[in-house]
Design goal:
DNA replication; alpha+beta; DNA binding; DNA polymerase, domain 1; EC 6.5.1.2; OB fold (Dihydrolipoamide Acetyltransferase, E2P); DNA ligase (NAD+) activity; seven-stranded antiparallel sheet; 3 domains
Length: 248
């Protein structure tokens, strides 16, 4: 499938005369086709806890084909959006892919709302650690501020080994979760003490894969300071800020 077309001036002389802006040519323009919209039923709303403690609601949908793939989940972002769109469990909703990539709930089909559709209320306590959730002034998100929240710790470990951070190939989400729940790692420092013998008992882990992970961990020790800073997951310290700070 194509998601749009690019319209260009078809004469080299005119292109040279029109020139470029800082980001793009003045002699070409992209035209995006309207995103495909389909209807699905919202069966439930699940919550996930990010590495910074933000609680994100996700719509669990009847699987439908949207823009070439099957969609069964869509982020609802925050409590305000749920109330603003009056989204209820059991509703029939219109789904599209934002930017033809990320599934989103566009609107509720009110005239198809079931009589037993349930209004959703966000919890008052973290579904992972049961710590009271807070809403920081000026933010729309609910947040768990417990530094020992297991969900946050696991997400922080996943972030640390990710491509833009320490880029430890082979340490994916499933393996990090197993290592954490088997008490083999509890913070990022523990990753560098792992041995092949620690890895071998994990699910779907063989000698070669375990050795490759150990090699990747060793290789990551040569990563630059900016990758380490970004990997630590300090709030408000993104890729660019980590680079600037590392250069100081």
């Amino acid at each position: 499938d194509i998601d749009g077309i690019v319209i260009k001036v078809n004469q080299i002389e005119l292109q040279e005369e029109m020139g470029f802006t800082q980001k793009s040519p003045r002699w070409a323009i992209a035209y995006k086709f309207p995103a495909e919209e389909v209807v699905s039923q919202l069966h439930d709303i699940e919550l996930s806890i990010g590495r910074t403690g933000v609680v994100t609601p996700t719509a669990i949908l009847e699987p439908v084909r949207v823009a070439g793939t099957t969609v069964s989940r869509a982020s609802l972002h925050n409590e305000d959006l749920i109330h603003e769109k009056d989204i209820r469990i059991g509703d029939y909703v219109v789904i599209k892919k934002a930017g033809d990539i990320i599934p989103e709930v566009v609107r509720v089909i009110l005239d198809r709302r079931p009589d037993d559709a349930k209004t959703y209320h966000m919890p008052t306590h973290c579904p992972s650690c049961e710590h009271e959730l807070v809403r920081i002034e000026g933010e729309v998100a609910l947040r768990c501020i417990n530094p020992k929240c297991q969900a946050q710790l696991v997400e922080g470990l996943i972030h640390f080994v990710s491509r833009q951070a320490m880029n430890i190939d082979g340490l994916g989400t499933k393996i990090i979760e197993q290592l954490y729940h088997n008490h083999l790692i509890k913070d990022v420092a523990d990753i560098f003490y792992l041995t092949k013998e620690d890895l071998l008992p994990l699910e779907r882990m063989g000698e070669k894969k375990a050795q490759n992970i150990i090699n990747a961990i060793e290789k990551s020790k040569a990563q630059s300071l900016e990758h380490l800073l970004f990997g630590l997951g300090i709030r408000h310290l993104g890729v660019k800020a980590s680079r600037v700070l590392a250069e100081e």
